[in-house]
């Protein structure tokens, strides 16, 4: 089908074969060629100034749906949405810590901390739009495959909407905090004896055969929400784009969403220049980095293994969309070793910010790109931290409390008798330790 009359506010299209579908079509893929769909909006009928003024006014409003870091941008996210399912979400901080300038070699690194979202990851931005769309089209149940964050987010938003949720996660490799969330929010949680790629295949099949609405990031409405990470950081920078935006990459939904956000922001005059994207994978789960190294001559798949379970993905679903994002932004893709991720994570944690392992890939990746001379020290860089420190307490306790012999940064808990003398002794050690850390800086 193709729309020949005046276009609706939004519609879906397949970039592969050009087929177009209505906004309300629930199918997860193009029914003609099986490709992934994209949401298109009619360009906003407001001038740049009018649009920016609206975004600014809403940002200053009382916390609530209009001020949500997603729905504040509704004209370019889902203009036809009426009632929305919103926590609200977004409004995450841009942080600066000198210790991380030193680690990465940059004059000034900014961190966009998406762990400050309601369920502790950036997924809430996509999920508020995805679940809103599920309600609009009358879905009776929702599902996703996940490495843990998508499922936690889906569970929370489905609970708010009163929709039954079925989540599929790889048995034994989901971080503790994420699994606990999906149980607590009431999703039916299936521990699949396989990896994430198996879970996604199964979720797609369930959606096609059982009619349950699929809310993985192959669903293009999810990406409309995730675009707002970029929109919000641009707004926080008064619409002066940075030189680089660095993000961790797994299933590549976020890389695709960032590319779309930048393409549209540029096309609609919100920014006069497009930042470069740097997508960072873990070396043991780096099929996209392999393809980038061959100028995207072919699509790779791998059997994924990394300590950063959120991005333990070997066959990323949004590959084609992400290739476009990297090409259009003159971007780069790289892989960093688990040791580099853990070192960056320890530095992010130690300066009081904290993040989950996958998030630290963006800081490790920034450091690697500065070392290789791809990013110059005086360039303006925003690295995205995608998830909260407490998502993965298991890895932290193992590192600090249980690893033998204790690694250099280990902060062992100390059990004491209930006596002031013991507290005094430990206070002395804490002060000595504090001085050592300060002099290292
Ligand atoms: N960082 C975190 C914390 C994530 O949870 C994910 C993906 C990513 C980065 C990578 O984003 O997949 O869009 O390239 N987590 C998904 C999930 C796969 O199921 O929670 P991506």
Low-confidence stretches: none
Mean pLDDT: 95
Rg, nearest Å: 22 Å
Order of strands across the widest beta sheet?
A: 4-5-13-10-11-12
- Portion in beta strands: 5-15%
Count the strands? 13
Structural class: alpha/beta
Descriptive account of the structure:
The mean pLDDT is 95. Strand 6, helix 4 and strand 7 (165-170) form a beta-alpha-beta unit. With 441 residues, the protein is of the alpha/beta class. The protein has helices at residues 48-59, 98-104, 123-136, 149-161, 176-184, 196-210, 220-236, 253-267, 287-293, 319-328, 338-350, 357-371, 393-402, 420-440, and strands at 10-13, 20-22, 38-41, 94-96, 109-113, 142-145, 165-170, 188-192, 213-214, 244-248, 276-282, 332-336, 381-385. Ligand F0G binds at residues 121, 123, 146-150, 217, 248-255, 310-311, 356, 358-359, 386-387.
